Amino acid sequence: MNMHALFLGFLVILGFIQSQAALVRYTFVVQETNYTRLCSTKKILTVNGQYPGPTISARRGDTVIVDVVNQASQNITIHWHGVKLPRYPWSDGPEFITQCPIQPGSRFSQKIILSDEEGTLWWHAHSDWSRATVHGLLVVSPKIGTTFPFPKPHAEVPVILGEWWKNDIQTVMEDFLRSGGDPAISDALTINGQPGDQYNCSAPATTKVKVEQGKTYMLRMVNAAMNNIMFVAIANHQLTVVGTDGAYTKPLKTNYVAISPGQTIDLLLEANQPRNRYYLEAKFYNSNPRSLFDNTTTTAIIEYINGNYNASATPFSPLLPTFNDRNASANFTSSLRSLASSAHPIDVPLEITRKLLYTLSINRLPCATCVGRDNRFAASINNITFDTPRTSILGAYYRGMNGVYGDDFPDNPPFIFNYTSDSLNTSLQTPMDGTEVKILKYNDTVELVFQGTNVVSGIDHPMHLHGYSFYVVGSGFGNFDRQRDPLNYNLVDPPLQQTIAVPQNGWTAIRFRANNPGVWFMHCHFERHVSWGMEMVFIVRNGKSADTRMLPPPPDMPKC
Ligand code: C2O
Ligand code: CU
């Protein structure tokens, strides 16, 4: 063999290695850890003692094994938000939907099968309210040998937006459930776990991002807060959105971002301003005048290297939209477009076999034990407030067990009324309850219109579907018009998302192909609305061929 052939052989082997998806392994030890914020110390639930938790790094198409070890004193489950897990719902994580909780002292080895996701995703606890502190990034880089569809950034910067209560989060949740009203508002918002210099005792630990003038940085942003959409901006800098929810978008230049709980946004930041210090600020957006919210501001500092600024001077501040500017939120959200390039093509279903209309409502139910009130809040989809079973729906489905769930989730709301009217009959406030799933056939093409209602009070709902990405083909304020609104659908380059904020007293239409068999949770990503019952389940049946059927469960599935 001559040198030339040897070299070619080497290249072939190298190419082979590069095209192979890797197996990546992590251990997540769930434990209680002391953390001090806002001048007080409390025990929080963490993974490996870290808050926010460790970043999982993988490449497109990899499989990641995470050995979750529960050394805490409470149950836990972990969800890989935005990972489709083709044919493998067993690792998905929502408590009592796809698994029983991992009990203290036990473990569960979760297999995270990546497929076409590329960009920023995240993981979080999916039992009670533990996701407040149990969350982290899941970064999916391009395959070896491929690149970003934009110039390689100088560095990647995580921006994890969160929420901090001085009180124990379990207590916050229990008090909230007992009261029947709204939850106690948080004491701080956070960036990468730090409230920032607008809060007591927090200035020294403010998150700092050092940048070099002339370089471009990629911000991997997730809203991991519990209960509100956020506005984010950086003083004097435009941002360029290049991706959301693990899919690329057309570059979108913007002065601010609106990001839903659950959503991720990838942004490019060009350090093209004088060498100084600039705030990255984040605040809650809250469209509902009747609900209390944490109206504080969390800050991080973008600090240019080699600047000759006064380090004790206040950095420049950005102009954020006002807290209740629902147009600012809806305009940003509806301006996202898929990249839709030949390297990153899209595949919007055009022939629809299942048309669904789901109303999203806040409700009231009588409450005899609520202190100071005779009713408690609830929430519903198509007027059904979800009753979570005490065993896994996936397990029951797989084993053909009766009595855990029903398959009568309605395709349309039970009553037709002017959903977004200012004056609605109070009789509309009472929901039904049930554990109903919607069965889809393999390869059904689904159009689902979410219709926000003004029952009790209209508010945005960031809706999230497990096991799928969906195309957001349209949205608007007011009632969805079956005749007129589809004429304006974007079927050319709609964004591919997993979480979408349905505007207050408005609607959003999504489309997806039901090609991932399994049991998949769908819910509002506001934690209080989940607790109130704004969730349902899709069961997607197996296809006919072996490669379109659910894979069998792993041997170590947790037991109830
Ligand atoms: Cu981000 Cu069901 O979750
Ligand atoms: Cu909601």
TrEMBL record:
The lineage of its organism: Eukaryota, Viridiplantae, Streptophyta, Embryophyta, Tracheophyta. Its EC number is 1.10.3.2. InterPro entries: Cu-oxidase-like_N, Cu-oxidase_2nd, Cu-oxidase_C, Cu-oxidase_fam, Cu_oxidase_CS, Cu_oxidase_Cu_BS, Cupredoxin, CuRO_1_LCC. One of its GO terms (cellular component) is apoplast. This is Laccase. It comes from Lactuca saligna (Willowleaf lettuce). Belongs to the multicopper oxidase family. Residues 1-21 form the signal peptide. Binds 4 Cu cations per monomer. It catalyses: 4 hydroquinone + O2 = 4 benzosemiquinone + 2 H2O. Residues 30-143, 156-306, 409-543 form the Plastocyanin-like domain. It comes from the Eukaryota. Its cofactor is Cu cation. The keyword Metal-binding applies. The keyword Ligase does not apply. It is an enzyme of class 1 (oxidoreductase). Keywords: Apoplast, Copper, Glycoprotein, Lignin degradation, Metal-binding, Oxidoreductase, Repeat, Secreted, Signal.
